[in-house]
Structure formats: C-alpha cells, structure tokens
Amino acid sequence: MILTVTLNPSVDRAIYLDTLKLHDTNRVVKTATDAGGKGINLSRVADELGGNTMAIGLLGGGPGAFVRSVLDRERVPHDFVEIAGETRVNFSVEDESDAPPTTFNERGPTILASEWDALLAKCRAYAPTTGWACLGGSIPPGLDPDAYRTLGRIFKGAGCSLMIDADGEPMKLGLDARPDLIKPNSKEASRLLDRPVESDNEAVTAARDLHAMGIPTVLLSRGADGAIMANAEGVWFGSSPTVDAHSTIGSGDSLLGAFLWAIRSGFSPEAALQWGMAAGAATALTDGSEIARQAVIERLLPMAKVERV
Hints:
The chain has 309 residues and is α/β, with parallel strands linked by helices. It has helices at 38-48, 61-73, 113-126, 147-157, 168-174, 186-193, 200-212, 251-264, 269-284, 294-300; strands at residues 2-6, 10-17, 28-36, 53-59, 81-82, 88-94, 102-104, 132-136, 161-165, 181-182, 217-221, 227-231, 234-239, 305-308. Helix 4 runs parallel beside helix 5 (168-174).
C-alpha cells in the first residue's frame, strides 16, 4: 500500500483572468476549486491508476469537509484526524501570460498536541501494512520542524520504504530518518545544497550529490524542463510530453503518484519515471488544481522520454 500523510492540506481555489492588474478591479473569467496537498494529490493519482493507497493527515472545519467530499467522490480511501482548527484555503491567480500563477498560501491551522498524538497513533497502526510511506508539504503551526523526522522514523522502524517531499528545515531534518526517495524541485534542491541549481548540468550534479548523501533515489523535478533521477544504477533525464499547459499545480505530486504506482507495479525505475513524466504533463493539461486522469496519462506515455545521462 502507498500511504500518504498530509499535515497541512488545503482547499485550492484558482482564479482565471485575462490580465492581472495590480491595485485595480479585475474581472474573473472563471474559477476552479479542488482539494489540495502533496499527499492528497499523490494518493489521487495512484488511485486513478489502480494502485492501493490510503490518504491520512489532519483536516478540520468546512474546508476539511470539502477535501473529504472530493476524495469520497473519487473513491480514494482516506482516514484523517479531525482537528479543531479549520483547514486552510489557498488561492492562485492565473492570467493568459506564460508566467507561473500568482499564489497566496495560508499558514494553516494551529495543531493541538492531542491531535498530533492521534496522528502518530494512526501512523503506527498503518505502518505494518504500508509499502511506501509518503510525507510531504508544509508543516502547520503548532508542530515542530522535525515532524517528518519523527514520522519517518516510525515508518522506517516498521520496515516501510519512505518518501519525503518537503522544503527547508523540515526536509533537512527529515533526512535524518533516511528516506528512500526525495523529490525536490530545483529551488528546493538549491536550498538543500546551498548553491544554485538552474542549468541542466547543475541539476544533474545536484541529483548525483544528493544521492551520494545516502538517499537511494533522488527525483529532481524541473517543471517543463523535465526531471532528473539519480540512483545506484546511474542518472536519467526524463523529458515531459509537449502539451498546452493550463496549470502546473499538482504536476510534481502527480509525477510522484505515478512513479510510485509504477514501482509498486513492478516497473523499472526508468519506466516508472516515464509514467511520472506523463502524469505530470496530464495534470498540467487540467484547470486549476485538478488531477490527471488515466486515459490522458496513457495517451501521453509514448511521448514521455527517459534517457541515461
């Protein structure tokens, strides 16, 4: 089973404009609202492809109920801890330019000690039946930055494979749990290594160096520029299918969801990366924070290429 833990889920609301005018009235062309959060998106894609998954974490209030309703509608198994606070709502504003969306992300609700203890107990209960435990996203107020280290040690102690997709101090501390896979983007890799990661050569070197730190598999995602995978067998470059992207929200999570589904299904890491690149592009074709569908992923799969560096 692929178990995802999302500590700071969200309702993601996308607003579409012709042109964003600061300090002026903007006419909205359309809106889209969906469930958000790295683990939630990962579980949705893995489930879409037929994988065995469970999404857990912390949800509260009306926005939390909305996230549950999305997962129920898509029949994605979930078992969240109900919290007293209200799950955050994030906004993104997208116009017709080729620039990335402008995003407004709330910090999230303050988590009580009793709620954290309930989640730890839930993780311990699921760990014996978990193949991959996937931890990702920001840490909400009330929790220590070492939350992923604490959770990671629970799962590694139970013999699970561990994936962490986070940024800054939570990721650095999480590395102490010895994850089997990490997926930084270029900026996150730059912060991990304290140096620029921009060019192709810098990305390849960064993936190699992170792998050399004792991380068995590194997926370094680069948006439209593809992804770099480094493992014990070498380094591979994955190129995305060329698509008319509507929104990149959730594309990295989709890459992970398809990659782990493929690994659990017996595909080689290179073939899994191809599935991941197709899923990321399929999600980019959707509006707002929607997630790719299997038929689109399969259609794009032959156009995703993976080559050894």
